[in-house]
Design a protein that fits this description.
Blueprint: E1 2-6, E2 9-13, H1 19-25, E3 50-53, E4 56-59, E5 74-77, E6 80-85, E7 96-98, H2 102-116, H3 155-163, E8 179-180, E9 186-189, H4 198-206, E10 212-216, E11 222-226, H5 241-245, E12 251-253, E13 292-293, H6 296-299, E14 307-312, E15 318-324, H7 327-337, E16 343-348, H8 352-367, H9 372-380
Parallel strand pairs: 1-7
Antiparallel strand pairs: 1-2, 3-4, 5-6, 5-7, 8-9, 9-12, 10-11, 13-16, 14-15, 14-16
Length: 381
Amino acid sequence: MLKIKIDHAEISVAEGTTILQAAEQAGIYIPHICFHPDIPSLDRQRPAQVIYRDGKRIENARPELRYEGCQLCVVEIAGQGGLHRSCGMAVADGMIITTSSPGIKEFQLDRIMELVSRHPHACLQCAQKDGCTQSPCTLNILENERCCTLFAGCEFRRVVEYVGLRPETPRYIFAHLPLIKDNPLFERNFNLCIGCTRCIRVCRAVWGIGALDFVYDDHGRIIVGTTNKTLKESSCSFCLSCVEVCPTGALQEKESGRTETPRKDAFLADSDLPRRPGLHKPTLAPQQQKLLELTRESLAQVPETGGIYQLFDGQQNVIFIKGAMNLRKELAEQLAMNKQARYFIYEENPLYSQRESELLQHYLALHGEMPALNRELDDLF
């Protein structure tokens, strides 16, 4: 076993474990979208010479490029400069890994902005998104610029919300890419594809078929399509593994395809693949806890138990992190004397001192300094 340190956690992992896998074992989330637990990487993979979308031939415009993944999962390693992709790097004994820092955050924000530039994202920036049915839209966003019907449970949405969107993220421009509905089992909407290549890899590496591939356009963006004019001509077995692993709404199963027993038209006659592949679900990005307004009414719902709370100012920036023996009592004191705090979140935890230390270390690693009111307390002592 190899001993490593990831952020505040010291763990032992087996040789050959990647940094991303080790972080998941330690309960530490590293943002990612191209990684899937059942699918190998296509690291440095060459693009195809040609693919097809809705029967249209598309040639590779950038033969010099190689697949590099989403690159969201970058980390810093002590003694090694730069950022490193955690999904493809195996751990080494004694390795010290940082998953959150200002440099990592800036890089991830850049990558997210690039990914959402080719995917509808107006709903992700809307203040009324929670509980919204998307139709009708209260802000009158054009329908083709809204997120798809998977919005509430979309894996890509969770990653974007976890990392964040820059205010200067440009508006999505609908590209009028093919929406193919002729298959009885699933639909393909290439306007929602972000080029993660999961569908390509599960088809090629897990089932050994290779009905899908990718090319690059003139701008270096990944374009996914079939290897021949149709799915059937590309030797697709219609097992729906590609649908299972898609992190967006680009591939969606039709209601008619949701059945416990295989349908005869679900795969080719000579296919022995199962109808349901039984793939594992990837780790989802943690959802951000909803901020509560710091009022007497909100505090009435807070338990009088030990835990940790965080205070936020009017711009929803963290200004204080504190462990407390009695959450309600301490928050009531903050309400009475703290004029900067407008919102709060809390979690019950009997080991509140340890949890306070963990959250402060994480904040320090991410921002390079402590929250404002924690800094003021340190200056007093």
